């Protein structure tokens, strides 16, 4: 299987919104309402003019499987924040492959030193996924987001490029054995 990341185009916006609006994806996001076409278009208009973010489509064997985004990219500090989501019907283990491909992109293509992310505390599968790829918890923002009327913790994780380079082969080898 060949995994790749490519820049989002205008032609990708409708499927991105459909994937993002699926209940399983929406329920893990800070913003959990159904995104309207107008809201999505306004978001894209703002994002596409920024030079400190990258929005990419993750594809396996040229079949689109999900979205990977890098925000607040700082060349000066060598840092960025990232997020991702797979399409609702993506095959099992797509998230693992997306994450490994995104990490290679972050540290090799973008030349980052440190990559960070935030995960709602109830999303234990993604916290475990990040840890399996070398991320470490750097903090917990207690009662940080109000989700469905309840204050929820947000877990802040980060990965340094040296750590990823040190475990990359082992992570990729483990993925082949699954």
Quaternary form: single chain
Tell me the β content: 25-35%
Q: How many extended strands? A: 7
Q: Give the second-level CATH assignment, the architecture.
A: 3-Layer(aba) Sandwich
Q: Examine the coordinates and then state which fold CATH places here, giving the name of the CATH topology.
A: Aminopeptidase
Secondary-structure content class: alpha+beta
Which superfamily, in CATH terms, is the homologous superfamily? Gcn5-related N-acetyltransferase (GNAT)
The helicity comes to: 25-40%
If helices are DSSP runs of H or I spanning 4 or more residues, what is the number of helices? Answer: 6
Write down the overall geometry.
Answer: globular
The largest sheet is: 7 strands, mixed
How many domain modules?
1
Give the CATH level 1 class.
Alpha Beta
Q: What distance separates the N and C termini?
A: 14 Å
Largest beta sheet: strand ordering: 1-2-3-4-5-7-6
Q: Give Rg in angstroms.
A: 16 Å
Low-confidence stretches: none
Element pattern in H and E: EHHHEEEHEHEEH
- Average pLDDT works out at 94
């Amino acid at each position: 299987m060949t995994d790749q990341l490519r820049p989002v185009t205008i032609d990708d916006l409708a499927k991105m919104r459909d994937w993002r609006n699926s209940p399983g994806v929406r329920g893990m996001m800070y913003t959990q309402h159904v995104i309207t076409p107008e809201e999505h278009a306004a978001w894209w208009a703002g994002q596409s003019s920024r030079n400190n973010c990258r929005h990419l489509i993750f594809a396996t064997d040229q079949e689109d499987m999900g979205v990977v985004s890098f925000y607040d990219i700082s060349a000066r500090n060598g840092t960025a924040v990232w997020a991702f989501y797979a399409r609702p019907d993506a095959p099992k283990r797509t998230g693992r492959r997306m994450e490994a491909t995104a990490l290679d992109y972050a540290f090799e293509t973008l030349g980052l030193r440190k990559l960070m992310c935030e995960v709602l505390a109830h999303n234990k599968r993604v916290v475990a996924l990040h840890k399996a790829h070398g991320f470490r918890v750097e903090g917990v923002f207690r009662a940080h987001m109000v989700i469905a009327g309840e204050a929820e913790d947000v877990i802040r994780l980060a990965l340094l490029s040296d750590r990823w380079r040190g475990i990359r082969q082992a992570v990729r080898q483990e993925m082949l054995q699954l």
